[in-house]
Amino acid sequence: MRAYGQLFAHVAEGQFGTCAAVRGIRSPSEGKKLERELTTKAQFIKALSDSFAVCDDVFANLTDANALQFVKVGQGEIVRSAVMTGILAHNSEMYGIVTVYLRAKNLIPPSTERQLQDRPLPPK
After folding, report:
1. Which of 33, 69, 90, 112 has its CA 20 to 30 A from that of 101?
2. d(CA 34, CA 8)
């Protein structure tokens, strides 16, 4: 089981690798094991922020024309839009896991907190 910070390192590694492959560049995390190497909150935040920056370009440049183009990912080729959908699905799964960690510490996840703010308080 991953520690809380390792979840974010895992997301960063996944985004670095996948988005770099779609862009056709070398992954900034290549040869690194972020889940093991990062140990501080500042390091986790920086890696996650940097990985989003790599992916921002990929999402910003998605067009109807290139959405169905094949891109090399790992050993094979996958349609660009499917790769990007995979990133979103993976991040959603990781957020689900993060919410369990938060609830185990009696903390309210941000998505639940937003929903609670929009609801009227129950009568006393």
Report:
1. 33
2. 9
How far are the Cα atoms of 18, 55, 102 from residue 87, in angstroms, in the given order?
8, 9, 22
Question: Cα(67)–Cα(70) distance, rounded to whole angstroms?
Answer: 8
| Dihedrals phi, psi of 76, to nearest 5 degrees | -125, -170
Q: What is the pTM of this model?
A: 0.84
Rg of the chain taking only CA atoms, in angstroms: 17
Residue 17 to residues 31, 33, 88, 96, 98, Cα–Cα distance (Å): 11, 12, 14, 21, 21
Q: Using N-to-C axis directions, what is the helix angle for 110-118 and 80-104, rounded to 10°? A: 80
Domains with residue ranges and CATH for the chain = 4-94 (1.20.120.450)
CA–CA separation, 23 and 54 (whole Å):
9
Interval 51-73: pLDDT, tens: 999 999 999 999 999 999 999 88
